[in-house]
Amino acid sequence: MKNFWAFIGMLVLVASPVQAQLASGMSGFSSAPTSASEAEYWIMMRRLGACLADSKKGRSIEFLSTTPGSPEEDAAFQTLFHRNTNRCMGNFVSANMLRAHIRGSIAEGLFELMPSDRRAEGLSLGNAAPKTVTSLHDFAACYVGANQADAIQFLNETKVGSKGEVAAIRQMVADFSPCLPVGAEVQIVPIDIRMAIAEALFHSANRHHVSNSQVSQ
């Protein structure tokens, strides 16, 4: 438990993106593919999530329905990115993206596209907090369950990888304590927190919609 939370905790850290590559000539004047900057990487992630949520909604939801790190997630990921080229990648020809970043970006895109009445209906029903917090997703579900309005405002008013995101997380830290493992010394990476919160919000709204749809059938 303590080892898991060692990278998520009360000291707010800024995460650096993983390697990504732009198409020839898209960054500077080089004729060869070049490494993307940190800013370019996060812009790509924002666009990627919104694009996949819009153009591959069904597959995106299937991807998010899997357990992180599971064989099912691997299969869903391969289905989502089954071609060598993907228009949602924009000018990026390759990228070693973290799955957590992709999950969160897609979740945020799906949540934004969800009709406001359906989203409000799902979130109004609330979520039962996890009995124990053993993962980042448990933490996010716990936090969102008690702070829906703040979580939505956080996503609406900040951009992933921005200084505003870090500043907002610093303000939110005081509300994290009830959802953190007792006695664990932890470090918070704003990007990770954002991605998990986005997915928790989407699941909360979408789960109730799915349940209602099943009852009506």
Per-chain topology:
Layout: E1 11-12, E2 20-22, E3 34-35, H1 38-55, H2 57-64, H3 71-80, E4 92-95, H4 99-113, H5 116-124, H6 136-146, H7 148-157, H8 163-172, E5 187-188, H9 190-216
Parallel strand pairs: 1-5
Antiparallel strand pairs: 2-3, 2-4
Helix pairs in contact: 1-2, 1-4, 2-3, 2-4, 4-9, 5-9, 6-7, 6-9, 7-9
Q: Can you give keywords for this protein?
A:
disordered C terminus; 54% helix; 5 strands; mainly alpha
What's the short story on this structure?
The chain has 217 residues and is mainly alpha-helical. It has helices at residues 38-55, 57-64, 71-80, 99-113, 116-124, 136-146, 148-157, 163-172, 190-216, and strands spanning 11-12, 20-22, 34-35, 92-95, 187-188.
Q: What is the tally of helical segments? A: 9
List the uncertain runs.
1-12, 22-33, 211-217
* Assembly classification: single chain
Strand tally is 5
Radius of gyration: 18 Å
Strand order of the largest sheet: 3-2-4
Percent helix, as a range, is: 40-55%
Description:
There is one protein chain. The protein has 217 residues and is mainly alpha-helical. The chain has one domain (4-216). Helices cover 54% and strands 6% of the residues. It contains 9 helices and 5 strands; from the N terminus they run E-E-E-H-H-H-E-H-H-H-H-H-E-H. The protein has helices at 38-55, 57-64, 71-80, 99-113, 116-124, 136-146, 148-157, 163-172, 190-216, and strands at 11-12, 20-22, 34-35, 92-95, 187-188. Strands 3-2-4 form a 3-stranded antiparallel β-sheet, with no helix packed on it. Helix 1 crosses helix 4 (99-113), helix 5 crosses helix 9 (190-216) and helix 6 (136-146) packs across helix 7. The longest helix has 27 residues, at 190-216. It is globular. It starts with 10 loop residues before the first strand and ends with a helix. Mean pLDDT is 78; it is low at 1-12, 22-33 and 211-217.
